[in-house]
Amino acid sequence: MNIVGYSDVWSAAPGDRIRFMVSTVHPRFEASIVRLFHGDPAPGGPGRKVRAVETAVDGEYPGREQPYPLGSYGIVEDVSPVDGPFSFSAWVYPTTSGGGIVEQGDAWRLYLDDDCALALRLGDETFRTGAPLRLFTWSFVSASFDGEQVRLEQRPLRPIPDDPAAAVAQQPAVAPPPTGGPLVFGRGLNGKLEAPRLEGVGAWDFSADIGSDRIRDVSGNGRDGRLVNMPMRAVTGHNWTGREIDWRNAPDEYGAVFFHDDDLEDAGWEPSFELTVPDDLPSGVYAAWLRAGEDEEWLPFIVRPPRGESRGPIAFLAPTLSYLAYANEHAAEGNPVAVTDFVMEDYYQPEDRYAIEVPLNGLYDKHRDGVGWCYSSRLRPVVNMRPHYHMPLVRSAHQFPADLHLVDWLEEKGFDVDVITDEDLHAEGAELLQRYRVVVTGSHPEYWTTPMLDGLEAYLEGGGRIMYLGGNGFYWVTSVDPERPHVIEVRRGRRGTGTWRGEPGEDYHSTTGEPGGLWRDRGRPPQRLVGVGMAAQGFDRALPFEREPGSEDPRATWIFDGVPPGPIGDAGIMMGGAAGLEVDRLDHALGTPPHALLLASATGFSDSYQHVVEEVASSDSKQGGTVSPFVRGDMVFYELPGGGAVFSVGSISWCGSLSHNGYANAVSRITENVLTRFAAAAPVTPAETEEVVT
Ligand SMILES: [Fe+2]
Q1: d(Cα 519, Cα 533) in Å, to the nearest integer?
Q2: What's the CA-to-centroid distance between 308 and ligand 1, angstroms?
Q3: Is the CB of residue 320 less than 8 Å from the CB of residue 423?
Q4: Strands 487-489 and 375-377: what pairing?
Q5: Positions of the chain with pLDDT lower than 70, given as ranges
Q6: Which of 113, 119, 183, 687 could be disulfide-bonded to 76 (CB atoms 3.0-4.6 Å)?
């Protein structure tokens, strides 16, 4: 990618300012603002549909390359130069060779060398133990200089007889000239560090202020510091007993910080231009469109309606936290995740290669030591959140570009829709939703915070209506960092369909203290909220839905007005059908209300589709789509007290079928019937009448 960038916010109201940061090899680039309707280049679809918006951004800008300051570390600014003798100690848990433990300017640096042995550079001299530390194991390390000799020591927490990882090295040395500079912990390290202590200077307790980027000096010298690029906190220390798995109950057993050399919170690029959202700009999906030579880049953002206002009865809730969770995802790289008969690399986009090269990662990826990414920040390029992007695993649009299928359809059908985002819902709760008669979700609203779930529940209890036009929604417990609202946190915990598992004792979020994992494991399964929940995922192709008897119920026949008999959604630009990628199932035991009508189902999936692991207690050979009755997609409808209602399709690929045949198809018609009815003032339901009678 020869031009790449990001914006500082993803959701802006009229009057708000958005800054755009750009890095490019080109000396100049052009920028303008466009409204996005469709970007998916898939054959058979409507292709690129954008509308130019005249703003003060229009113009040419100087290009420059901006670096990625990768790697997390801790820094203590206010430290006087080491002048003569010193003594340092810490616990370290390396997960790869190499990387810094502590350094101060050019004066001295204690680190692990390429063999993972402890090494000290003092001025121009380097001293080594020559004994590699064991990976994924705690060791106590110390380094001291008494004015005449350097002494290095490393001691595994659980030594073995004649332990080759235990060593003491003592050699004569001369003091280097004193040089100042901040004290830096863990730079370049992949691994955990705990309780660093520099005699007479400071002793840092990483178990303090876990929810923040602060590191506290408990020596009494007041030399507090901060962490840069969000290394992982709320991780187990060398003394973790397992008696507690919630760090808040045993903070002294969570005194470690996990550093990685590819962590990145804020790329910190200089802004190239900015936009103050014009007052008359209608709510919608927009992007800064950058062009330089043959290259182009899109930096999408949402314009929400003015705060406290709504333009009409319909809101599209853009699942921006799910976009952020999937940021730069390339988890399938060299690691086939499913039964597939294609070669993933054949479908790599330039964006995938770029994300692998930098590297840029999201919550699906692992650091190079195999530890999962648990924080994702939007203050850096998110190169797969682009209107044209196809996810290799699916060979189709996914997340943001897939949601443009819906945005385009809404425009084609003449629905005037406000676009709001997860972040807006997180901040404003039910009050935001209550301005609308109906809220329409995106294709894959998977990542939900507590305030978001509470807000949606309260909205539905108050008579709201939801169209859940996706699959695998409302799934992972997600936190928005209260101190750094551009960051989300997810811990994958003990079970769930994902690309990594958490480490023991590390299921609780550092940013909010919430228990992480699946919402169903906190008693809030999606079925209770929207009637269906995650059942299976597969990657070969999508199937159509077939009608179930519920579609003949007088409560629901209006949904099928004008829909001919036969399959629903047997074509589409996402995997070729309306039920696919991830499909959800009705399940009364998990909370689907008893009066929910099963309108249609998709069954007969291939074995690429497997029943989700969280419902499989013991591995066996009967979990594939060809044999498991649980591998299915269910479409449901039901009424709620107070005039509310729920319509759920339980499939990620539904919206990819909307545009088929010039928008004239069963999926389009059903969606239009429901949206028209849900957006009307009239009660959706007979339940409303009953309530009035009693
Ligand atoms: Fe997902």
Answers
A1: 11
A2: 31
A3: yes
A4: antiparallel
A5: 334-340, 685-694
A6: 183
User: How do beta strands 447-448 and 225-228 pair?
Assistant: unpaired
pLDDT of residue 553: 97
pLDDT of residue 338: 58
Q: How far is the CA of 640 from the centre of ligand 1 (A)?
A: 28
User: What spacing in Å lies between the alpha carbon of 363 and ligand 1's midpoint?
Assistant: 10
Beta strand pairing status for 295-303 and 125-132? Answer: unpaired
The pLDDT of residue 331: 83
Distance 527 CA to ligand 1 centre (A): 17
Residue 425 · residue 432 · CB < 8 Å: yes
- 450's tokens: 């507590």
The dihedral formed by the CA atoms of 76, 77, 81 and 84, expressed in degrees to the nearest 10? -10
- The class (CATH top level) of 3-68+268-303 is mainly beta
d(CA 285, CA 491): 30
Could you tell me the residue ranges of all domains in the chain? 3-68+268-303, 73-259, 314-690
Class of 73-259 in CATH:
mainly beta
Neighbours of ion ligand 1 (CB under 5 A): 446
* pLDDT reported for residue 341: 76
What local confidence, expressed as pLDDT, does residue 335 receive? 62
**Can you give the pLDDT at residue 83?**
77
